[in-house]
């Protein structure tokens, strides 16, 4: 009998112990439980990624520049180029000394060295056409000691520090074995030294996952993971934002299309960051390698045919303004005021008629002076819906002056091939980015100068002379004067026509995240944000 009572007592005690343990677990402070949960920053984008290769895929490379890979310099919140991994100095603008100032390591634990920097510049210049353009003035890179590099240029270049923003540094011990980086698919292909480590990419769902690099030299990121979801349409992305499936939307060097703002303003948990755009939202570019787009009078006639007020009203929904003939936005310190662009149909018609562009066969459309039918090809990226809408408006306006227009939508890869390599187009509509406005000699020269990427292929001797003076000038007052002369040429010769100046509109879920930091180059997705953003539990 005593044995039975003892067994019963032990059983009751055991049950009571389990119950007490469960009770104690339930009574733990909520904070103690939640601290174990992973914090995930969820980003939605229409910058669609097709393959996780930083050489082959443009948008994956953009995400890599912020998340997984480092550049040598960075941009502060005011748009200044400042040291990141290296500092620099020069005595003659041709020989630049770089000093490694960060104790950074690759994601596989190996140290990042000056040999890696030397390798990155030389390898990318040889293997990637885009880098070959940006590194065009670099003659050689030499390691001086364990913390010093000497970069020799083939000419004076005061703007050289802009190049330090360009490369996504890659480890020599990985890529030195790779002959074709655009096809490499080894498991170490995405090793970088940035604040996050690439985890996975699922092409079917469009999800890219990154995990925090706890050993990042500037400190551990403030979230454990970043998940990027690529959406095929803006509507689908904004629906996910409204539902709370994502914390924020993102588009490189852009915000959302202003047409979506009124509906989002009705959502109580959606807030906005609105910032000035240092790029030109969209311009009409002419190919100087083709007639009649290389004729100043023709370009001026086109400038008078366009209805800029309608672009501001219909495209920017009030978040834009009519640009000036000087092309450069008034956000820049060297802005020089020029007359605003304005439509003048009678003047456009008069100039075209004086050039011999008239309807010679009676079909209602203008012909070449020799009588052959004239049709303007208008190239536009199909992945940016606002550009397609804008192209229709430009076509409408040009058809008002009897110019036949064919809109040619192409994907990003085809666009870059036609515009930057084969130069096979008549005109195009596209934007410029903050970074693009900085490079070469600044003031958008990257996009104009035929000796560089040169969308417009400008080979005007007057233009080249001013650009060359800028490239060797350091003095700010002299630079402002030279940039003023450049804007005089933009206004006089209309190498490209700015269609509107706008703003960057960035929505986010203020009930879900806080601590976003904006920079003019990468917007809200930048390394400072990754070290400060908080995901609310």
Q: What is the β-strand count?
A: 20
CATH topology of the largest domain: Dipeptide-binding Protein, domain 3
The CATH architecture of the largest domain: Roll
From the alpha carbons, calculate the radius of gyration and give it in angstroms: 28 Å
Q: How would the global form be characterised?
A: globular
Number of helices: 18
| CATH level-four homologous superfamily name of the largest domain | Dipeptide-binding Protein, Domain 3
Sheet with most strands: 7 strands, mixed
Strand residues, percent: 15-25%
Helix proportion range = 25-40%
CATH class of the largest domain: Alpha Beta
Low-pLDDT segments, ≥5 res: 1-34
| Integer count of domains | 3
Mean pLDDT over all positions: 92
Structural class: alpha+beta
Q: How far is it from the N-terminal to the C-terminal residue, by CA? A: 56 Å
What does this structure look like?
The chain folds into 3 domains: 69-175, Dipeptide-binding Protein, Domain 1 (Dipeptide-binding Protein, domain 1); 196-276 and 512-535, Periplasmic binding protein-like II (D-Maltodextrin-Binding Protein, domain 2); 282-503, Dipeptide-binding Protein, Domain 3 (Dipeptide-binding Protein, domain 3). It is built from 18 helices and 20 strands. 33% of the residues lie in helices and 20% in strands. By secondary structure, the chain is an alpha+beta fold. The strands form 5 sheets. Strands 12, 13, 14, 15, 16, 17 and 18 form a 7-stranded mixed beta sheet that branches. It has a 5-stranded mixed beta sheet with strand order 8-9-10-1-11, covered by helices on one side. The chain has helices at residues 2-26, 30-34, 58-67, 114-127, 129-134, 172-175, 234-243, 261-264, 296-305, 308-315, 345-354, 385-400, 412-422, 434-438, 445-448, 461-471, 476-493, 527-532, and strands spanning 40-45, 73-75, 81-83, 86-90, 95-100, 138-145, 148-153, 196-202, 207-212, 225-230, 248-250, 270-276, 282-286, 320-321, 375-381, 404-410, 427-430, 496-509, 513-514, 534-535.
